[in-house]
Amino acid sequence: MPIKCPVAPLEFCFLADWYLRQRGIRERVEISYVSPLDGAFTKPVCNRELSGLLEQKGVGLVTEFNTGSVDGLGGRLVAYDGREVPFDLAVVVPLHGGAPYVGNSPGLGDELGFIPVNEHSLQSTSAPNVFALGDAANVPTSKAGSVAHFEGEVLVENVRRFLSAEPLTARFDGHTNCFIETGFRKALLIDFNYDTEPLPGHFPGRVGLPLLKESRLNHLGKLSFEWLYWHALLAGRDIPGIGSAMPRHGKRFQATG
Fold it and tell me: Is domain 8-86 in CATH 3.40.50.970, yes or no?
C-alpha cells in the first residue's frame, strides 16, 4: 500500500478466471488474491460483495498479508510476519510513490513523495501557493482517474480564488467512481466519497446504472466511457448530470439509530 487503483488487482483475478474458463483449463489452475487489507475491499458493504464474487469464482482470498520479499526461484511470497504463499506465477503490485522531483523542495512531500494537502481544498499544508491532485496528493482516497477528474473541478476554482485573495470555498468530498470488470462481459460499478461507502442503488440518480451489482449494462457503460474520456473529458467538456460532488440520489442508505 498505497495501491494506485485498489480494484485493478481484483479485476485481474476476475478476468483471469474468465480467460481460463474460456480455455477450458480453469479447474487446473488455482488463483489466490493476496492483500494487505483485512478483506477484498476497505469498506464493509463493498467488501462483502467483492469477497462473495471471489468465492463464487473460486478465487482464494489471503488477507492482512504484507509482502516483505518475493522468492522467485523458490516460488514463494514471504510476508513480514513470516507467512508464505507459494506460486508458479506471481503478479505483484509494486510500491506506489510520488514524483521524485517533489523531494527537491524540502518539506513539500511526505516520506513516499506525495504532497500533504487539505483533503477538501487541495491546498498544500506546507506551501499555500501549491495545490496538488491525482497521483501527487496524499488525500485518503484512490489515486484513480475519476478522482483526479473530480479533484480538478475543485482545484481550478480554488486556484482562481487564491490568486484573487478570496476564501477557498470549493470543497472536494472524496468522490470516487469506478467500474470493476468481473468477466463474462459483466461489470460492477461503485460510487463513494470520504463519508459514504459504496452502496447499492443506481448512478447517477434513481434511474441509471446499477451500483454494487454485476450487470452487462455496467460492462457496456465501461466500454462507452472510453469514447467519453477521449472526446469529452480530455476536450474539457462536462458530462451532463455528473459533477465533482458525489450524488446521493439513487443510493440506498441504511437506517441508523
Answer: no
